[in-house]
Amino acid sequence: MTGPPPALPVLTENELMPNTFSRLRVNGLDSPLGVDSTSVRLSWSADQPLRPDDLIVVELDTDSATDHLHVLSADARSIVLPRPAGRLVQWRVGVRREGRIAWDAPRGFTTALDLESTGAQWVAHPEVARARAEGDDRTVWFAFDIESRASDTRTLLHLAAPGVVEVRVDGRLRRDGLLGPGYSDLRTEASAATHDLGLLAPGPHTVTIEMASGPYWISDDPARYRKFAAQHQAPRLLAAIEQFGASPRVTTTTAGHTRTGRGATLAAHWYGGEDYDAGVPEPWEHGADTVAVAAGAPSPKIWWPEHPPLAVVETREASAAWEGSRGRVVDFGVNIAGVPEIRWQPAAEDRVVELHPAELISGDGVDQDSTGTPIFDSVRIPAGTAGSWSPRFGYHGFRYVELRGPSAGIEVSAHVIRAANARAGGFTSGDPFLQRLHEVIDRAVQGNMHSVFTDCPHREKLGWLEQLHFCFDAIARGYDVEAHLRDMLHHARTAQLPSGAIPNTVPEFVDFSGHAYLDDDDAFRFDVNWGGVIVHLPLAHYREYGDRRVLEDDIAAMKAYVAYLASRQVAGLIDFGLGDWIAIDASAPRELVASHGFLRVLESAEVIAEIVGEQAWASELRALAGSVLHALRRHEAPGADASQTELVILTDIAEKRGDGAASDAFFASLLERIAADGDAFTVGEVTFALLVDLLHRRGHAELVHRTISRTDVPGYGMQLSRGVTALAETWSAERLTVGEGSNNHFMLGMIDHWLQSDVAGLRQSPTSIAWRSAVISPTFLADVPSAASVYHSVRGTYRVAWHREGPHVRVEIEIPVDGQASVLIPGVAPHDVGPGTHVYLADDTDMVLAAAEVSAHG
Question: How far apart (Å, rounded) are the C-alpha atoms in residues 797 and 816?
C-alpha cells in the first residue's frame, strides 16, 4: 500500500444560498466517520419553498475523484448512491434555477478503512494472547508513536476490538467515543470505530488505546455481581492511524513492534465494577515496555456500526448527602445510566475508597436489590496525592452512590452517558402527572440508549427486542435514531438461527433456553412478539424515515422468520413464549396471545411485500394470515371471567375479520371487564398499546386517563406515587426478589404514543412516508389545562400546542415548508392545511357539556 491520497480539496461554489436545506444526513447521521455500508443515502430537509421547475443537484467530491452532478426533481429529499471509493468525502446539495446553481455549505464524512489491506495485524499483550487467566480483569494498553508534520491536514484512528477502549493522545482523553466501539456478536464479530484525532501540532505524539473486555470476557468472580460468565474473546486489537496531507502515512498494529502493557485499572468487570490504583503509572506515563504479539486465531469478523458514539450528555452534582451505617450516601436526584466521579485532595496516608451505586436506599444505606449485588468500584489513593477518577470501561444504573472507606473531603458528581443521538422532539403538558410521566419514560429511554437499546443499565444490559416496536414512538419521537435502529436490525439478523428463529435478546449474549415459563422451556428465548421485531421494526423505520433499503436489507431474514413461525403451527395456531408479559391478570390463553402476535407479523410482512413489489410473497402472506384468522375463531367464545387481555385481542381479531357486530360485542364486554376490575387495567406489555388504541378510537380517552393516573392500583400512577424518576420494570414499581424489578426500564413506555399522538394530537398520516403529511387531532382531556408535542421530522418541524382559555381552547399548529396536515380539532370543521403557523379557537367541550347539564337541570 502506498498510503492514502492527499486531503480532500474544498469544493468551490458559484453562489451560496444558506438555509435552503437543513438536516443533511448520511445514512441518517450528521457527518459520520467510518461508513461501511455498500450504499450511502444522502438526505436533507428543505427550509425554503422550492418552485416546481427547480432542480435539486447533489455533488460528491472525494480524495480520489469528483463525482458527476446528480440532478433530481424539486420534491426529492434523498438519493442513494454506491459508497464512494475515496476515504474522505465531501458532498453538497443545491438548487438549479434559471441555469445557475445555488449551493448550501458542503458537509463531509469518511468511509471505513479496510484494516487488513493496510497490513495491520491483530495483536495482543503476551499475557493474554490466546486466553486470560481466570480472574484476570486487568486492562491492556497499546501505544503508537507518530510524528505530525506542518503539512498534515487530518489524522484518523481506526480500530477494531472485542471489548471497550479508551483513546488518548499525549495523555488527553478523547471524549467522543466512550465505552466504544460497542456490542457485537461475542463469538464471531468485533466492532470497529473511527476516531478523528483532528489537526495535531507538528512534532511527536503518543496515541494510547487502553482496552477492557466488556461483555466479551466476564470472569466468574463471586466477589462481584454478574449476569453471566463469558470467555469468548480475550483482549486483542487491530488498528491503523492515517495521517493525511502532503506526505500521507499509515501506522498499524504490528506484532513485535506495537508497544503494550497492563493498565492501572486492575479489574474491569462489565457488570460488577472496576478497581483502580492511582499509584500505578498510566500508559502515557510509561517509557519502553514490552511489545505486542500476534493474537491467537481465529480472527473475528470486523463490523462497523453506524450508531453515534456514546458521550457524556449531562453532569449532575449531589442533591443531598448523609451518613449511613456503612458510609456516606450521595443522592443525585434522578435515576441515571453513567458513572460517578470522585475528586480528592492529599491525605497523610494511603486509602482505599469504594463506590457502591444503587437505585434504591434502605435504612442502612444503598440497596442493590434491583440492580444485582455486589456492584462497586474501588480506588486506591496514595498518600500525598490529589486527583480525580471515574470508571472508564463500564457504566452503572444508579441514583445513589455510597462511599465506603476514608472519604472525608472527597467530592462526588455523576456523568450521564448515552448514545449521542440528537433530540428529535418532546411532549409537554400543564398537567403535572402527564408531564412527569413523559419525563420518566424519557429518562428510561436515555438510560438504555447505549450501543444497543438495553432493558436496564445494570442487572442485564441486554438488548431485549420487543420494546423497539412496542415503544417505537417513545424512542423515535424523542431522538434521531435512524442509524441506531438500523444497527439493531443488524444484530437481529446476525443472531437469527438456521431455523429462522430470532432470540428475544440481541446480540444473544445469553441463551435463555431451559428457564421454563408457562410450561415452555424456551419461553425466555423465543417469543413472536420479541422476534417479530425483524418485521415490525423495518416497517416502522421505513415509514418514519423513508429509507427503503431497510426493507430490502431485512427481507431475507423476514422470510426465514415467517417460515419458522409457520413451522411451529399446530392446527393453524402457535403456542409458545411469554404470553402477555407482566399482565396483572395473566389468565388469557397463551395460544391466543402468541397467535395474535403471529397474525400481526404476517400483516406487517404483507405491507412490506407490497412495497418492495414481491407480489407472490404478499399473496402467500395474505393466505397464511387468513388461515390464522380462521383458526383463531375457536377462541371467540370467552368465558364470563375473560381477562382484559383476552377481550382486547378478540375485539381486534373481529375488526380484522370485518365483523363489526362481533367487534362491538367484544368491546362492550371489555368495558364491562374494566369496570368489574375497578376501573383499572390488568393487561400486560404485549396488549397495552392495543387496549389504549381501542379505547381512544371508540371515544373513551377519559377512561384511559383515569386508569393510568390512579395511584392505588398497579400502573403508571402507582409508579409515580412511589417516587420513580425513570420508568420501572413492573407496573407497581414494587421491590421484588434480589436482582429483579429495575427502576430504569423503558419497556412500559408504550403510553408515550398516546401522549404525543392523541393527547397532544400530532401523528403521521396513515398513508404517509417520512412525514410527508401529518394528522392534527388533539384530545381536550378534562382537568388537563394544556398539552403540546414538537417533532423535528425528516421533512421539517411539526408542532401542535393547545391550552384552555376561558370557555375556549386555543390550538396552535406549525407545519414545515415540506409538509401538510389534516386538521381534526373538536369543534372545527375538518380540513387540510399547508406550511406555516395556524391558530384555532375551539369550544372547550367540557365546559360546553357542563353548561348544558346546568341548563338541563334548571
Answer: 5
Can you read off the three cell numbers belonging to residue 772?
Answer: 410527508
- Helix then strand count (H, E) for the chain reads 16, 45
Instruction: Give the three cell numbers for residue 159.
Output: 480500530
- Alpha-carbon gap, residue 279 to 214, rounded angstroms: 24
| pLDDT per position as a tens digit, 239-293 | 999 999 999 999 999 999 999 999 999 999 999 999 999 999 888 777 667 899 9
**Is the sign of the CA dihedral 9, 14, 15, 20 positive or negative?**
negative
Strand 366-367 versus strand 425-429 pairing type? unpaired
Give the residue from 226, 136, 207 showing the smallest Cα distance to 166.
207
Question: Do 608 and 538 contact (CB within 8 A), yes or no?
Answer: yes
What is the CB neighbour count within 10 angstroms for residue 80?
Answer: 13
Tell the residue number behind the cell numbers 376561558, with chain if given. Answer: 806
Ranked by mean pLDDT, which of 94-108, 224-238, 654-668 comes out on top? 654-668
The 10s digit of each residue's pLDDT in 788-819 is 999 999 999 999 999 999 999 999 999 999 99
Q: How far is it, in rounded angstroms, from Cα 833 to Cα 562?
A: 41
650-656-661 Cα angle (round to 5): 65
The number of C-alpha atoms within 13 Å of 606 and in the hemisphere containing its C-beta is 15
Instruction: Report d(CA 272, CA 375) in Å as an integer.
Output: 4
Residue 748 CA to residue 744 CA, distance in Å, equals 11
Cα–Cα distance for residue pair 139/210, rounded to 1 Å: 7
Strands 808-815, 836-843: pairing kind? antiparallel
Q: Residue-wise over 300-325: b if at least 16 C-beta within 10 A, else e?
A: bebbbbbbbbbbbbeebebeeeeebe
Please compute, for residue 352, the number of CA atoms within 13 A of its CA located in the half-sphere on the CB side: 7
Phi, psi of 708 (to 5 degrees): -75, -20
In angstroms, rounded to a whole number, what is the distance separating the alpha carbons of residues 312 and 446?
11
Cα 530 to chain center, whole Å? Answer: 16
Per DSSP, which regions of 51-163 are E strands?
55-62, 70-73, 78-82, 88-97, 100-103, 107-110, 123-124, 140-148, 152-161
The CA-based angle 842-845-850, given to 5 degrees, is 140
C-alpha cell at 614: 414481491
- Other beta carbons within 10 angstroms of residue 764's beta carbon come to 21
Radius of gyration of the chain, Cα coordinates, nearest whole angstrom: 28
Q: Say if strands 273-277 and 377-381 run parallel, antiparallel, or are unpaired.
A: parallel
Distance of CA 208 to the CA centre of its chain: 29
CA 617 to centroid of chain Cα atoms: 31
Comparing CA positions, the residue from 303, 302, 296, 365 lying closest to residue 330 is: 365
Whether the CB-CB separation of 434 and 755 falls below 8 Å is answered with yes
For residue 516, how many other CB atoms are within 10 A of its CB?
A: 11
Rounded Cα distance between 780 and 807, Å, is 12
pLDDT score, position 849? 38
Pairing of strands 189-198, 301-303: parallel
Cell 408504550 found at: 750
Q: Cβ distance 102 to 117 under 8 Å?
A: no
Average pLDDT, the chain: 93
Q: What is the mean pLDDT of residues 75-98?
A: 94
User: Would you tell me the crossing angle of helices 549-567 and 590-612 to the nearest 10 degrees?
Assistant: 140
